[in-house]
Fold this protein.
Amino acid sequence: MSESAITITNLTKRFNGITAVDNLSLEIGWGELFGILGPNGAGKSTTVNILNTLLEPTEGSATLDGHDVVFDPEHVRKVIGVCPQEPAFYPHLTGRENITLMGDMHLVPKDVLESRVSSMVERIGMETDIDRLAKEYSGGMIRRVSMLMALVNDPKIALLDEPTVAMDPKSRRAVWDYIRELRMQGKAIILTTHYMEEAQELCDRVAIIDEGKLIALGSPTDLMETHQSKNLEEVFLKLTGKKLREET
Amino acid sequence: MNPRRIISLVKKDLKKTHREPAVLFLLIIFPIVLTIVFGFAFGGIGDGGTTSFDVGLLNLDATSPQADWSMAFVNNLTDSEVFVVYAYDDNATGQSALLQGNLDAFIVIPEGFGDSIASYYGSPIDPSSWTNTTIGLYVDSGSMMAVSAVPPLVQQVLMKTVFGSDAMTLNLPIEISSPALVKSSTFSQWDFMAPGIFAFASIFLTMIVAQSMTYERDEGLLKRLRTTPVSSAEYMVSQTLTYMIIASVQVALVLASSFAIGYRPATGPAGIAFTFVIALAFSLVAVGFGLIAASISKSAEVSTGVSFAFIMPQMFFGTFMPLGGATEVIAKFMPSKYLTDTVTTLFLRGAPITTPVIWTNLAIVSILGVLLVAVGIVLFEKFGSR
């Protein structure tokens, strides 16, 4: 196991001359729950998509578990679990089949996979619905299944891109508890969100980025103290002069 | 490449086939319905009616010293019981009868017909010494059945006349594409259409492949898979295997449906097994076209339309649609034509599986299939997967 879980060094990504991520450097340790905050278009998802090997950086580098995302993507894919912003799932499969499919892609041993899926489903409160076709699910259910699809391989590093969007408060709490449990297991977790209370509640440290640039880094408490703010929303407002989001 | 990943992806796609009503209909129910409806409509269900062709005949070689050959040809036409032969004294009257729909075909045996065959037997291995002649064959273009059936049947009668019943001799300088004479005298239109149904059913795989790939791309499923250790090769192999399995099921369903309505192909287990093999090869063609359609389509909806650009020509030029003239030339570029040709040779003509033409067809379809899948994968990786 490498010293730090994730090392991002001078990471830059440009699309047709537009800079989505601008010279970003971060170091995230094992057992750390790290939040990336920013408004839509700030570069959160682009950063995650570089870390999950879908995009290559224009400049700079990123390593996960000591393996470079460009030069050793195969290894990176073995150690990560990715919950995408838009929950991608097969509507004609049941929730259980969707999760099991991802386990098969990671070659999780069959006997382990079966019991793991059952315990994960129970953990997230979907026992009664997990064998229904996913196309019959509500938005919140789909989000929860999507998260389990990301975590079924018991990844060392979890990349959770807005995992609780469209969830009711009860489901969101269940997911938060689950994420905390993963941190306790020593996993490194990157959580992108624009729910400030979620970041305050969960994250050990947060990076606030705007227009691709890192504008603040620290624990939620430190950031609020430093900027004499009641919450992270206010921190963001003070740093950028604009609200993090129009609507919650 | 890991078999567990491939099997898991294949299962995922097969579940879609029976859980999505539209896919279930198009891939499974449609071939059955098509077979049964066409079978009923075109006489597949034991109406027992004898279908024969009214053929006009003008023998311009009847008085030559080698007239025995033309007489034998006429006798063989008559004995086949597929043809009802009417003798004509001149070309104009015969052509007129054909134009008015009184005949299905008009055959003109040329002067020198007997000399031509005699010259062959005089020097079977020296084509330069043969006297070449051409039988005039005019078919009623308004009759789909006549257009598709009469030329090969006349060809078979000719082969029987020249070589006798055991015409399959490998060392002859003349190729015999269908050595077995069709024994049945009770053809219905369905008998001629049935072989085309196999290709017709499989053609629509192209649309499902294109829709499935574009859907998975648009919904972020391909991206999601690309964040896992599964490789592109494993994914593409799983897609190909899935549609090969579906093609096999389609062949089995079309066969079973045909049997259920009384159709009996003139072939045995070997011929049926060969049909499965060439249908599998054809499924590669469908997957290749599907990948190409997906590569150039911006959405699943668009891919449906684009797929038809590949489906329609194959449907019209390569299944049971009547061909003639220029369409024969176009058909040579349609992979489905080779599948239909093979099934026709086996099921209708009753040719054995040692017949060279079906192996040639299998080679053509297989090579085309592999090439199209390769091109499809390259295009999809480059333009279609993001």
In short: The CA atoms of residues 270 and 353 of chain B lie 7 Å apart. Confidence is low (pLDDT under 50) at residues 44-48, 168-185 of chain B.
